[in-house]
Amino acid sequence: MDLRARLADYAWVVRAQLRPGRVDWSGGPGCPVLLVPGIWETWHVLRDLGDALHRAGHPVHVLPGLGTGSGDLRTSAALLRDRLVELDLHHVVVVAHSRGGLVAKLALPAVADRIDGVVALATPFAGSRYATWFPARSVRRLSPRDPQIRALAADAGQHGRIVALRPRVDPHVPPTGPLAGAVEVELDLEGHFRLLGDPAVHEAVVRAVEGFGERP
């Protein structure tokens, strides 16, 4: 991925974070969706995706208590669980970006009666080696060396309820091998953030949400 494409990727996420915060995604006949952003992201980066899911008939919810997603994974997973209980949601599909997919996977066993599955975009399920020496502790927690990441990567018990969408080239999440038992789809895209605004990705996510559990 060249420098120009990287800069465009970063520019996209900065603009996305600055969008106004009010939306109304309530109602709809489809299954409910809970959006979970990645590290240093607010839910606003998933706004285009939320719009697409709501147009497809799904009530869409966010996780405001997560803030910028820089806390401990267990704390974030507890916030996800509490949000589902607060809203009394069942048969939910979590749509998550990057670190958000780890939060959803960690939460799955505790909320198995509420979540049907997870659609994860560009998630480092085995960690990212680029995080190992990063100055911020919140990012270093995503290193493959982190004990929590290692334990989570070794636990394949929930993979059957995960659809993992990955860009062909991701400057933040290098390839780490297959996610055994999950449905994995490679997107013909480059970048880590801009894919969240791509209409083709929106279509893929809507299909995954609506056909969850089906194997191609």
UniProtKB/TrEMBL annotation:
InterPro entries: AB_hydrolase_1 (IPR000073), AB_hydrolase_fold (IPR029058)
GO molecular function: catalytic activity
Domain AB hydrolase-1: 32-127
Cross-referenced Pfam families: Abhydrolase_1
Official protein name in the record: Pimeloyl-ACP methyl ester carboxylesterase
Lineage of producing organism: Bacteria, Bacillati, Actinomycetota, Actinomycetes, Kineosporiales
